[in-house]
Specification:
Elements lengths: L1 H22 L9 E7 L21 H4 L2 E8 L4 E8 L7 E6 L2 E10 L4 E4 L7 E4 L7 E10 L4 E5 L2 E2 L2 E7 L9 E9 L2 E3 L4 E2 L5 E8 L8 E7 L6 E8 L5 E10 L6 E6 L10 E5 L8 E3 L1
Parallel strand pairs: 1-9, 11-19, 19-21
Antiparallel strand pairs: 1-4, 2-3, 2-5, 5-8, 6-7, 7-13, 8-10, 11-16, 12-15, 12-17, 13-14, 17-18, 19-20, 20-21
Length: about 290
């Protein structure tokens, strides 16, 4: 009986040592296996105006984005580490990592300008992305993957998580107007990577403007990229004189922003009444983009 028990203990001990040696080096450090994500070029049009981007629509989106963020979390949702790349890096778009064998969740974000990784960066459940007025276009992907002794490698296409709201004035702008200002209200600061949704809190406004010249007085348009697709937006168009005094303004309410879609506010400023913009869609982003008349 004792001999049988001793033999069992020895077998268990040998098996444990073998398993341990597979997961660690001789000095006890864990074995790390190569992990690679290759971000593929994303062929989706950006708005052509410099207020939204400064790149031509013929480029792939990856070539037009300035920053790439990679966050990785283990099977329990605990934060492991992050990698940040900028467009000038030789490896931009190719994320190389080393991880122990196991199940993980990766969050990949690429944007025109920098964003903030906010919240308490310890768990997936409370990790947030924070946008700024300069962040611009945003592409995102969250995925689960399993690292084995052979490592892990996968090409990834990121999904656009912003929509574009474009305002077009269809009538001639009066000669005393020096500038047109376009503002969107109810943009949200935070995107929750656990739910893949914007967080309905701390609403802000985003604005852009254009000087009125002889070249654009007969037709002017401005656009803004927005990622709040949960709460309707409010847009305001203002005509300003040379001293920035308001000559006239119009407000458009109830605008539903949709990811990857362009919402077009189309109307005249010569009408005396506020409102009346029409909403429609522009298929340069995805089919059935919205158009709103004003």
């Amino acid at each position: 009986m004792k001999r049988s028990l001793l033999l069992s203990i020895l077998l268990v001990s040998l098996f444990s040592c073998k398993s341990s040696s597979e997961d660690s080096t001789q000095d006890g450090a864990p074995n790390l296996h190569p992990v690679e994500f290759k971000i593929g070029n994303i062929y989706e049009d950006l708005p052509e105006l410099k207020t939204a981007s400064t790149f031509s629509s013929g480029d792939s989106a990856l070539n037009r984005l300035g920053f790439l963020y990679y966050l990785v979390f283990d099977a329990t949702g605990k934060f492991v580490h992050q990698i940040k790349q900028s467009k000038g890096d030789v490896s931009f778009g190719l994320v190389s990592d080393q991880l122990k064998a196991g199940q993980y969740t990766a969050v990949l974000v690429s944007c025109t300008d920098e964003m903030v990784i906010s919240g308490n960066l310890t768990l997936l459940t409370n990790t947030k992305l924070k946008t700024t007025s300069n962040t611009g276009d945003i592409f995102y992907k969250k995925l689960s993957f399993n690292v084995t002794a052979d490592g892990f490698s996968q090409p990834v296409l990121l999904d656009r998580v912003v929509g574009c709201v474009e305002m077009r004035i269809t009538d001639r702008i009066a000669d005393n107007v020096a500038k047109v200002e376009f503002t969107i209200e109810n943009e949200m600061l935070y995107f929750n990577v656990n739910t893949d949704l914007v967080e309905i809190a701390n609403p802000e406004s985003r604005s852009t403007s254009a000087e009125v010249t002889s070249a654009n007085r007969n037709a002017i348009k401005l656009d803004l990229l927005v990622w709040n697709d949960q709460v309707p937006l409010v847009a305001t168009v203002r005509l300003l004189d040379a001293s920035n005094a308001i000559i006239k303004w119009k407000k458009i309410t109830g605008i539903q922003n949709i990811r990857r879609k362009k919402t077009i506010l189309l109307g005249k400023m010569s009408d005396f009444l506020n409102g009346g913009f029409s909403v429609g869609y522009d298929d340069r982003w995805i089919p059935d983009s919205t158009v709103i008349n004003f």
